[in-house]
Amino acid sequence: DAKTTQPNSMESNEEEPVHLPCNHSTISGTDYIHWYRQLPSQGPEYVIHGLTSNVNNRMASLAIAEDRKSSTLILHRATLRDAAVYYCILRGEYGNKLVFGAGTILRVKS
Amino acid sequence: GAGVSQSPRYKVAKRGQDVALRCDPISGHVSLFWYQQALGQGPEFLTYFQNEAQLDKSGLPSDRFFAERPEGSVSTLKIQRTQQEDSAVYLCAIPDKDYTFGSGTRLTVV
User: Fold this and answer.
1) What's the mean pLDDT when you consider all of chain A?
2) Contacts of A101 in chain B (CB under 8 A)
3) B84-94, pLDDT tens digit by residue?
4) Partner residue opposite A43 with nearest CB, options B40, B44, B101
5) Do B42 and A102 touch (CB under 8 A)?
6) B28-70 residue pLDDT tens
7) What pLDDT is recorded for position A1?
8) In this structure, are residues B23 and B32 in contact, taking their beta carbons and an 8 Å threshold?
9) A45 and A35 in contact (C-beta within 8 Å)?
10) Is B48 near chain A, with CB under 8 Å?
11) Are B44 and B59 in contact (CB under 8 A)?
12) Residue A50 forms beta bridges with which residues?
């Protein structure tokens, strides 16, 4: 499974946008880019995923570089409830298991 | 997540004790995964079921770990002769729109 690299931690102010980067230079053509987040004392939850084009949903936006070697998860207005560990994961088209790295700890200040 | 119920929520075991952790997914899900999450780390794959068949157990750390899903619904992860290094959160997941994780069982071996 292709590897991703994320910063260990980031900090944001409440109500401000947050850009969480992920590098995945060894991504293959059929790998989807998935983001999950894990709130304290909870299991991971799905956030968003994409292949080549930028994606938006009610939780976040995903910006994918043209060469697909990096992506950015965008939270448009961070709230205290967005404080969590965010994981960037590559998954093949027919991939089964998810391979997690250490993720990025996002702290949100009020 | 609402689609996966795990019990117990917390378990304290004395070293050497056997434990059984339960995962109860909402009905109709063919696939089921178990993950282990050590403190400060991302979840790591343990094993995967398709119905009652255990198709991949490559992540089980030792032969003290055993998982079953006899009727293709509820699954049990059993750890025999627990050791301190088994202390972790054990997560169950089902592929839904993407993956839905349970809240996990936090196992502490003392």
Assistant:
1) 93
2) 42
3) 999 999 999 99
4) B101
5) yes
6) 789 999 999 999 999 999 999 999 999 999 999 999 999 999 9
7) 58
8) yes
9) no
10) yes
11) yes
12) A33
More confident residue, A57 or B29: A57
Contacts 24+ apart (CB under 8 A), A99-103: A99/A1, A99/B45, A100/A36, A100/A44, A100/B35, A100/B42, A100/B43, A100/B44, A101/A3, A101/A4, A101/A5, A101/A6, A101/B42, A102/A6, A102/A8, A102/B40, A102/B41, A102/B42, A103/A6, A103/A38, A103/B42
Chain A residue numbers with beta carbons less than 8 Å from the beta carbon of B104 are 42-43
DSSP secondary structure string, B46-97?
EEEEETTEEEE-TT--STTEEEE-TTSS-EEEEESS--GGG-EEEEEEEESS
